[in-house]
Amino acid sequence: MSLTVVLWLILQVYCGVCLVHSENAAGEKSFYIANDRFYKDGSPFRILGGDIHYFRVHPQYWEDRLLRAKSLGINVIQTYVPWNLHQPQPDRFNFEDGANLEGYLQLAQKLGFLVMLRIGPYICAEWDFGGFPAWLLAVQPKLRLRTSDPQYLELVDSWWDVLLPKIVSYLYSQQGPIIMVQIENEYGSFGSDKSYLEHLVTKARAHLGEDVILYTTDGAVPELLENGTLKGNAVYTAVDFPVEWEPASAFALQKQFNCPGQSPPLSSEFYTGWLTHWGEEMAHTDPEFTAEALDRILSLNASVVLYMLHGGTNFGFTSGANTGKSARDFFADLTSYDYDAPIREAGDLNTPKFKALKAVVGRYIQESLPDPPPLPARKAFGPVQLEKLLSLFDILRSVSMVPEGIQMYEPRFMEALHQTSGFILYRTTLPSHAKGGSRIVIPEVHDRAQLYISDPEFGGREQASKKYMHIGTLNRSSDELLLPSSAAVPGLQLDILVENMGRVNYGPFLYDPKGIISSVLLDGKPVHNWVAFSIPLDSGPPKIAGLVSNQNTRRPLVKDTGNWTDGPAFYHGKLIIDEPADTFLSVAGWSKGLAFLNGYNLGRYWPVKGPQCTLYIPAPLLHAGENELLLLELEEPSNTLIVNFTDGADFSCKGTM
Ligand SMILES: *[C@@H]1O[C@H](CO)[C@@H](O)[C@H](O)[C@H]1NC(C)=O
Ligand SMILES: *[C@@H]1O[C@H](CO)[C@@H](O)[C@H](O)[C@H]1NC(C)=O
Ligand SMILES: *[C@@H]1O[C@H](CO)[C@@H](O)[C@H](O)[C@H]1NC(C)=O
Ligand SMILES: *[C@@H]1O[C@H](CO)[C@@H](O)[C@H](O)[C@H]1NC(C)=O
Ligand SMILES: *[C@@H]1O[C@H](CO)[C@@H](O)[C@H](O)[C@H]1NC(C)=O
C-alpha cells in the first residue's frame, strides 16, 4: 500500500464522509465547503450573518427588520426554530402568524438573504426551557433530555417528522435560501452523549439529504469541542467565543475539529451585546470595542454571524431563565431581548454600535449598502388612567375563568396538570396544629409563591375587599416563613399563588417543572388535601370585562392586625388613538405583573426589580379607536393607577427591593 492510501484510510476512519461535499462542487445552486472556504455556486463566499429570530419580532415587522439587516451588509440570516412554539401540545402544531416559519424563509429569500437554520431540538436562546415544550416535563418516567434516552428520541423524531419535510424545499440545492442546518446547540457545554448527536444527524440527513451542510456550534475550548462536535460524521464544526478572545487561535482550534480543507473559519455567535436578567443592570457593551473585535475576525477572511443582530422581544411567557451553582440561584430573563444589539428592540439604527459595525463592514465589501427603511412611526400617547376590575381570587370564586379546582392530596406540579404557563393557586385549610410562629416551608417552589390567609366562611358569602392577609412571598432561594399569630387560626384558608417566571434554558438544571414540586411543610409535617386552580393565561386575558368588584369593605372575622389586601388584581383602561404607532408602556410605579393589550400578552413587568420599566408595543398590536389595556398586578398598584405610553425604552428602573 502506498503512503497516500494509508493516509487516505486514516482519513476515512477519522473523517470518513468528510469529502462528500466536495463532490457536488461545480453545480449551479450549490453551497459547499472546500479549501477551508465556503463556496456558493462555485465562487468563494464569506458569511456576514446575523441572528434575527422570527419568534421575537411581530410578523408584520419581519420585513422591516430584515431590510435593516440589509443596510448593514448582512447576507445570511441565522435563526433558531423553537419546538415549543410549533408544538405547544403533543397533539397540536402551530405554523401560523408569528410561527409561520415558511413565511419567514420566503421573505428572507425574497429580500436576497441566505439562511442558517438552527433546528435544535434544544436551542437555549434565552427562550423558555431552551425551546423544549413544557409537556415533556409531564412524561413518565422522567425524560433524560438531550441524551439518547429512547423515549426522548422518539418525541424528537416525531417532531422532526413534522418540521423537516416543511423545510426541504427551502434548501439551497432546491432553489431555497437555507445553506446550513445546525444540530443541537453548544452541546459540548452540556453532555458527551455522541450517540444522541449521531441520532440527530442521521434523522436530519434522512429528511434533508446528504448534500446539505449540517453544523454544530460550541465554545472555542478543547473540552467543549471534544464533546459537542461530530467531524467523523461529516458535520461541520463552527465555534463561538467572547469578543475579547483572539479569533486566530479560536479558528486554529476550530480547524482541529474539522476535517482537512473543511474548516472555513466561522464565528457563528459573535456577541454584539448580552442578555439581561431581572435585577441586573441593562447589558451594555462598548461599540468601538465590539467593532474592533469584528474587524479582527473579518481581517482573517473569516465568516461571522452577529448574535444578536436584532434581539426583539420575549412577548408573553416566552422568556427563559438561568441558574447559578444551584437550581435555587434563579435568574429570570427580561421581557425585552434588546440585547444591546446594533438594531435595537424597536428597530432603531441610529446608535453608536450600528454605526461602528457598519464602518467595519464597509471596509470589507465592495457593493454600496442600501438605505434602511424609515423607522416605523412612534408616538408617546401619554398617560392612561386605569381602574381596578376584580381581584384574581374573587374571579376564582365567581366566574369560570379557570377550570374547577383539582383536588389533590399533595401539591402537584404545573405540567402534571397539563398547564404550560402562568400561575397555579394552591388552596388548603390550615391544619389544627397551626399556631403563631409556626414555620411554613416549601422546599421546592418554582418560582415564586405569594401566601395568603383568609376566612373561607366569610369569603364564601360576601364579596368584600381586603379579606386576604398577605403573610409573605417565598421563592426558590428563600423557602420559609413564620405564621403570624393573627393568622394562625386552624380552619382558615391558606392560599399559595405560585408564578412560573420562565423555564431554565441553559445548564445542568434545565429540567425545570413549575409550581410546587415538594410537600408544603407546617412545623415539619406535610400539609395534605389541596385544591389547585390552573391560571395559564395563555390564550389572552380572562374575559372579565363587564364584571365589577363589590366595594364592601367589611373584614373577615380574624384579628384585624396584619397586611390585609384583596390580593393580585386586574386593572383595566382604554387607550384611544387616531392612528396606530409604535409605543412603549411605562409601568413605573407599578410592582410586578403582566400586561395585555387587545388580548395580546405583552409580557411580564417588574419595575421594582428593574432594570426594564417599559414594555415595547409594536404598532400592529394597536388599532385606531379604543384599545383595551389590562394589567394583572401581583403586588402593589401605582398610587395613581396611571400607566404612561411613552416613545422610548427605559432600562433605568433601579428597583426599590
Ligand atoms: C466531556 O466528556 C467527557 C467524557 O464523557 C467527560 O468526562 C467530560 O466531563 C465532558 N466535558 C464537559 C465539558 O462536559
Ligand atoms: C484574505 O484573502 C485575501 C484575498 O484572497 C488574501 O490576499 C489574504 O492573504 C487573505 N488573508 C488571510 C489572513 O488569509
Ligand atoms: C427571593 O426572596 C428573597 C427574600 O425575600 C429575596 O432577597 C430575593 O431577591 C428573592 N429572589 C428573587 C429572584 O426574587
Ligand atoms: C406587613 O408588610 C410589611 C411589608 O411587607 C412587613 O414589614 C410587615 O411585617 C407586615 N406586617 C405583618 C403584621 O405581617
Ligand atoms: C409620561 O411620559 C412622558 C414622556 O414620554 C413624560 O413627559 C410625562 O411626564 C409622563 N407622564 C406621567 C403621568 O408619568
UniProtKB/TrEMBL annotation:
Domain Beta-galactosidase 1-like first all-beta, by residue range, is: 411-535
Domain Glycoside hydrolase 35 catalytic: residue ranges: 38-362
Q: Which residues form the Beta-galactosidase galactose-binding domain?
A: 568-627
Q: Which UniProt keywords apply?
A: Glycosidase, Hydrolase, Signal
A Pfam family name for this chain? BetaGal_gal-bd
Q: Which InterPro entries match?
A: B-gal_1-like (IPR026283), BetaGal1-like_ABD1 (IPR048912), BetaGal_gal-bd (IPR048913), Galactose-bd-like_sf (IPR008979), GH (IPR017853), Gly_Hdrlase_35_cat (IPR031330), Glycoside_Hdrlase_35 (IPR001944)
Q: Which reaction does it catalyse?
A: Hydrolysis of terminal non-reducing beta-D-galactose residues in beta-D-galactosides
Q: Which residues form the signal peptide?
A: 1-15
Main EC class the enzyme belongs to: hydrolase
Question: Active site annotated at which positions?
Answer: E186 (proton donor), E269 (nucleophile)
Q: Which domain of life is it from?
A: Eukaryota
A single GO molecular function, which one? beta-galactosidase activity
Which EC numbers does the record give? Answer: 3.2.1.23
PANTHER family, per this entry?
A: BETA-GALACTOSIDASE RELATED (PTHR23421)
Entry similarity comment = Belongs to the glycosyl hydrolase 35 family.
| Name of the featured protein | beta-galactosidase
